[in-house]
Structures are given as C-alpha cells and as structure tokens.
Amino acid sequence: MSLDKLMEKFLEQSMEAEDNFYRLEEQRLQAEDKRREEEHSRELQMLQMLGQIFNGISTPSPAPQQYSKSSKAILQLYVEQTDILRSFSLGTARMDSVIPLVRKTIPPLTSKKHKGQDGRIGIIGGCQEYTGAPFFAAISALKVGADLSHVFCTKDAAPVIKSYSPELIVHPVLDGPNAVEEIEKWLPRLHSLVVGPGLGREEMLLKNAKEIIERAKLRGIPIIIDADGLWLVAKEPSVIQGYQRGILTPNFMEFTRLYEAMHHEPLDSTDHKRSAQQLSIAMGHLTLVLKGEEDIITDGKNMLTCSQEGSGRRCGGQGDLLSGSLDSCAHWAFSSSPDATKGMNPSLVAAFGATSLTRQCNRQAFHKHSRSTTTSDMIQEISSAFKKLFES
Fold this sequence. Notes:
(6S)-NADPHX binds at residues 198, 251-257, 320. The protein has 392 residues and is an alpha/beta fold. It is built from 14 helices and nine strands.
C-alpha cells in the first residue's frame, strides 16, 4: 500500500475515532441530565415522606407513638442521601468564600523583596514534537506573578522554546545522559514543579520524569502533573500516590485512563463528582482537578466546583495555562499560614484560584476574538483577569 493510501486511511480512522468520542460524550451528557432529574425527583419524594413523618410527630397523641420500620428506614435513607448531596454541593455552597482565601495567599508587591521570592517555577517537559505546551505553562506562571520560570526540556526543543520568549530560562538537559542529576541541582532553588507539558511518551523521558518527581518529593516541593505526566501516573501510580503536595489536572479522557488504571473497572461516566472523589481517595487523597463543563476539585475529603463562566471555545493549550498558573498559586498557598486558608487544604485553594483564572481568561479572550480565540490570546488576558478576580 502506498504512503498516500496509508495516510488517507489513517486520517479516516482518526476522524472516525473523534466522531465516536463526541458521540459518546453526547450520550454521557444526556445520561447526566437524566440522572439529575431522577435525583431531584427522589429528593422531592423523600422530603414529602419526611414531612409526613414529622407531621405525625408533631400531632398530639395520648399514647406513645411507635414508628414503623419502613418509616425509620425512609428517614435513615433521607439522612444518608442528604449527607451525600451536601458533600457534593459543598463547592457550590462555598464558592464565594474560596476566592477571599485565594486572595489571602497572594503575596503583596513590595520593594523590600528580592528577585525570586515570589516564585521560582520549574517546568519538566518539551521535546522535538511539542514545544508550545511548556512555553504556555512557563509564561503563564510568570504572568500570574512568579519571578523566574525554568523549562527543563530536550536538546532539540530548547532553541525553539528560547525563541518564543527571552523571559524563560531554558535548560536543554531532559534527554541528556545525566538528566536527573542536572535537574536535581536546580531543585533546591525551585518552589514548585509542573511535570508533563510537552513531555511526550518516549520511554527515556518518562523514566527521567519519574526520577525527578521522586527527588522533588523528598524536598516537599509542590508538584502539578498534567498531560503526558498523567500518562506516566496511569502506568505507575505509586510515583505520586499519597504525596499531599501533588496535584493532578486531567481532562476527561486522561481522568478515565487514571480511574480505570486504579480501579481496574470501567468508569461510571454518569457521576463525575463521585468518580473524582473515589480516584482521589485511591490516590491517597491526592488533590485532583477534573477539567470539564465545570471543574471538579477534590482531595477525597472536600470538594469544590468551579463554574466560573468561560466560553465554548476549547483550543489547545488551555490546560497548560492552567498548570502554569497553578504552579505559582500552589507555591503561594503552601507558603501561606494556615490562617490564610482558614484550615482548608492549600492545594484546593490553589486549584480553585487557577481554574477560576483560566476560565476568566477564556471568557475575556472569547469576548474579543470569538471562534478565533487561541491560548496566546488567553495569556494576554491574565493580567486583567487576575486583577478582576483577586485584586478588585
């Protein structure tokens, strides 16, 4: 078969796979709508039954009233369902109170500080095929307010990433013979890491990334894992499992891969919140940011839902803006006093701040560029979006 025929067949298969994905996603959304309607109906029925029970309690009776086993069962079921609903609506109920916590973690700008004090950020990723992702993550960290942004990439990727911006410090070491040792020398100077943007899936690069994660954990550095870093975690969950300063930021497909790797069973796509909570618990209460129509943030114990208005535009690179801004926010949150976050897990506060910011950037960029919106347009909105959310 000729090369042209092979390419044509490959493109047909790719288009078919994409069509299948969107068809399944539409079915999932329909199932989710149906589930919500059924859940609402059940809740109304329980409220009606509970009202009848309480009405019986409040009615005077000359003799002690005995309640049937069925009434007690209904009451118990209602209490259990209410607890579940309360835990899943925690984010929505407390959303307005989380933004002030994010604000309290943001370091004030003052002339008394020195360069690097507000954040020295590291990005592990960037290979011959993927140079945009590490750039987007690194420049977003700077735009949010970090002072220095390092990119540790392969030798081939370095000149390209350097050409995008003189603001970044680019190290062409990720595919070198002493990659881990070369990067480890920088770890004492870094406040947080993002692992995955543009990393690729070459075995050697994944192996180096794994070892870098292990050594960063020993130093207690916050680690955000995204993109191909999540591919590594799906293969070897123990690399980050149980590390309380680790944050995973999967999209739905990456989340599905992680869930099935941990639970060895198909994902129930009708209840994202419950599934996210289950995965977080299985990962040792690691903070998880499930990106989607609404961003679900959970550490298995608490849950926040970020529904900040964005847009329908989903261009490549938005996740890199999120991971880069989260890198800065994580450093600030973990450096803040417990009073600043009111005892809330700093990872949750940081993740909520970063997801809110990304959505606001998307909204503002879309308002200007509509269908033509790209991640570069969104990055240009970071300054005004940050000010609107956290400094107004």
